[in-house]
Amino acid sequence: MRFFTPEWAEAARAAVDAGPEREGKLPTYWNWIDRARAGYTATWALGVRETGEYLLLTWKDGKCAEAEITSDPGAADYVLAAGETTWRELREGADPGRVVMYRQLRLERGDVLAFFRVIYFFVESLAALSRIRTT
């Protein structure tokens, strides 16, 4: 499957909706993720700086309901972008938490405080998305 295509976007929606693998972390961590996700409603635009393309993920009541590839993040609640190198590293197994912490994937628009209140939910969603096999 090719990266940043409509087919990949649907696979990304399904992956983040299903959530990450739950091995290797304490049950209390997953309880926190479940609480953060419950009722979550927002739109994320995850972009590639060099191409200007975005994966637009729409969350409604804790479910990732829609996904599309677009060149306009529009009214997304949170716009984040990274370079092609960072996206490749994520697909090759880079730690999503580190990618966010070291600002390789940067929040470019959105309420910083509200975004970071659910940061581990976002990181685990990014981890699920990064496991999709692409060419």
From TrEMBL:
<dbReference type="InterPro" id="IPR036527">
    <property type="entry name" value="SCP2_sterol-bd_dom_sf"/>
</dbReference>
<protein>
    <recommendedName>
        <fullName>SCP2 domain-containing protein</fullName>
    </recommendedName>
</protein>
